[in-house]
Design brief:
By secondary structure, the protein is an alpha+beta fold. The protein has 4 helices and 12 strands, in the order αββββαββββαβββαβ. It is globular.
Length: 230
C-alpha cells in the first residue's frame, strides 16, 4: 500500500529528482563487478519526537562491520525483483519490518563500498504505519532504534571520526550510538538535501572507538583544527 508522504519530505523528494552519485560519495561506482545489494533508508514520524530514521546496530561478534550502526539491508537474492524488494526483504529478516507498512519513495544512485565490494542502492521509504521492531537474529543485530532527525541535526551531536587507516568522515553521536561510515555519509547527504542540516563545527574529530566501546564518544571531545585533518 502506498500512502502520500508528509509535506516535510517534499524538499528532499524534489532534490532527489536530480541526485547523482557524486552527491553522496567521491568514490566512482564501477560499471561492472561488485555484489548487488540494497539498504532501506526508512523515514517515519513519532508523535513525541517528530521525523525519524530507523537504524540498527550490528552484533559485535560479526566478522565484518561488527558493532557498526547501519540501515537495514544486505545482498540481493536472485528472486528479488529489484533493489526495493531486496531492501524490504532484508529489513523484514533483520528487524521484523512489515513491508506493507512502507511506501517506497525513491531509489538513490548506486554507491560503491570497496572494503566489501558491494554496489549498494539506498532505497528511501516512508513508514506510513510504524509498528514495533526488534532484532530477529541477535547474533547479527544487537539493537534497533528510531533516531529523531532533530537529534541527528543537533550541532552537539555531530562529529567527524578518524578511522585507524587515517580515513576521516562524518558521524552522529545520538542516544548511545555512534553512526559513522557509509550510513553516516548517506544520512549527512540526505539531511543536506532536505534542508534540515544546521551549522556545526566540522573541526570536531574523534578517533573511532574499539568495537563494543560504550558509551559512544560525544561530539564535544577531542577537538582539533579543521586544517589539521585535511
Amino acid at each position: 500500500m502506498t500512502r502520500q508522504p508528509p509535506p516535510w519530505l517534499d524538499p528532499l523528494l524534489t532534490r532527489l529528482g536530480s541526485a547523482r552519485t557524486e552527491d553522496f560519495t567521491r568514490l566512482i561506482t564501477p560499471e561492472r563487478g561488485g555484489r548487488e545489494s540494497a539498504v532501506l533508508v526508512l523515514l517515519g514520524e513519532a508523535p513525541d519526537t517528530g521525523p525519524d530514521v530507523l537504524i540498527l546496530q550490528r552484533a559485535a561478534t560479526l566478522r565484518t562491520h561488527a558493532g557498526q550502526p547501519a540501515f537495514p539491508g544486505g545482498a540481493a537474492d536472485p528472486e528479488d525483483a529489484d533493489a526495493s524488494a531486496t531492501a524490504l526483504r532484508e529489513a523484514n529478516e533483520e528487524v521484523g519490518l512489515d513491508p506493507t507498512t512502507v511506501s517506497v519513495l525513491a531509489e538513490l544512485p548506486k554507491l560503491w563500498i570497496p572494503v566489501s565490494e558491494f554496489v549498494v542502492t539506498p532505497v528511501l521509504g516512508w513508514w506510513h504505519e510504524p509498528h514495533p521492531v526488534h532484532p530477529r537474529e541477535p547474533a547479527e543485530v544487537a539493537h534497533v532504534a528510531r533516531l529523531p532527525i532533530s537529534e541527528l541535526v543537533d550541532p552537539e551531536n555531530r562529529v567527524r571520526v578518524r578511522h585507524p587507516s587515517g580515513w576521516i568522515g562524518p558521524a552522529f553521536s545520538v542516544r548511545g550510538m555512534l553512526v559513522w561510515g557509509f550510513t553516516a555519509g548517506v544520512l549527512s547527504a540526505l539531511l543536506d538535501m532536505g534542508g534540515w542540516t544546521r551549522p556545526w563545527h566540522r573541526g570536531r574529530v574523534v578517533d573511532l572507538p574499539p568495537v563494543g566501546a560504550s558509551p559512544a564518544p560525544s561530539a564535544g571531545t577531542d577537538e582539533v583544527d579543521e586544517s589539521a585533518v585535511r
